[in-house]
Amino acid sequence: EIVMTQSPVTLSVSPGERATLSCRASQSVSFNVAWYQQKPGQSPRLLIRGASTGASGIPARFSGSGSGTEFSLTISSLQSEDFAVYYCQQYNNWPPTFGQGTKVEIK
Amino acid sequence: QVHLQASGPGLVKPSETLSLTCTVSGGSMNDNYWSWIRQPPGQGLEWIGYIHYKGNTHYNPSLQSRVTLSVDRSKNQFSLNLNSVTAADTAVYYCARDSPVPNYWGQGTLVTVSS
Fold first, then answer.
1. Angle at Cα A86 formed by Cα A82 and Cα A89, nearest 5°?
2. Overall average pLDDT of the B83-89 stretch
3. What is the pLDDT of residue B35?
4. Do A96 and B100 count as a contact with CB atoms less than 8 A apart?
5. DSSP A88
6. Is the pLDDT confidence value at B31 over 90?
7. Residue B31 region by backbone torsions, left for phi larger than 0, else alpha for psi between -120 and 50, else beta
8. B67: CB partners within 8 A, 6+ apart
9. pLDDT value of position B60
């Protein structure tokens, strides 16, 4: 099973600032990575698939990059509604696996 | 807009079977994959498995010996059975459309395993 490791565990950012979240796979997963946002008490929301393709209705301030084993999610200018937990997921190998999440909190 | 709603007992005794049903509204079950994913309290996400609308299934190897997924297209529902549960199976269980990248998620239902 592929292990996805996210860093940092917690990221403290001021509104309007840029946030960059990282995700590392234990072996190459090509471009088969998705990113999700989860707010307390809610189900995850798909943000990015294919490492860099935005899902329908996702604001342009969310962008993804990477390939192989190193991936990142960037939020260009944090809005109040962006403070949440973010998960990466690989789907190159079965079973799909998720990272443990990065919590983006208000600084 | 597709809407998914999971339902079932919120409390299951150890060694018994956890059974959940997901009702799909706002769209057809045809031509899609239907997934179950769970999240223990305060922890990350774990894929349980998926079922194609025609009934083909694919399970997480870590749960394969205990999991059964089924689909009832006439009722627009798909179901999860997880047998021989322990406290480690306590989690919020999500049903979702699509695999392996779910775009539509139900709200999740908490199932606690306790005597």
1. 145
2. 97
3. 96
4. yes
5. E
6. no
7. left
8. B48, B49, B59, B60, B80, B81, B82
9. 97
CA–CA distance, B40 with B88 (Å, rounded to integer): 8
What is the rounded CA–CA span in Å between residue B53 and residue A9?
A: 37
Distance, CA of B90 to CA of A87 (rounded, Å): 20
Per-residue model confidence as pLDDT tens digits over B47-65: 999 999 888 999 999 999 9
A58 shares contact with chain B (CB less than 8 Å)? no
Query: Residue B60: which of B33, B38, B40 has the closest Cα?
Result: B38
Is B108 in CB contact (< 8 Å) with chain A?
yes
Contact B107 A87 (CB under 8 A): no
Interface test with B, best of A3, A10, A43 (most B CBs within 10 A): A43
Write out chain A residues lying below 8 Å of B100, CB-based. Answer: 89, 91, 94, 96
Segment A17-30 mean pLDDT: 98
Tell me the pLDDT tens digit for each residue of A31-75: 999 999 999 999 999 999 999 999 999 999 999 999 999 999 999
State which H helix or E strand residue B1 sits in: none
As beta bridge partners, residue A25 has A4
A42 touches chain B (CB under 8 A): yes
Look at the block and give the residue holding tokens 């999740």.
B108
Neighbours of B74 (CB within 10 A): 7
pLDDT at A1 over 90: yes
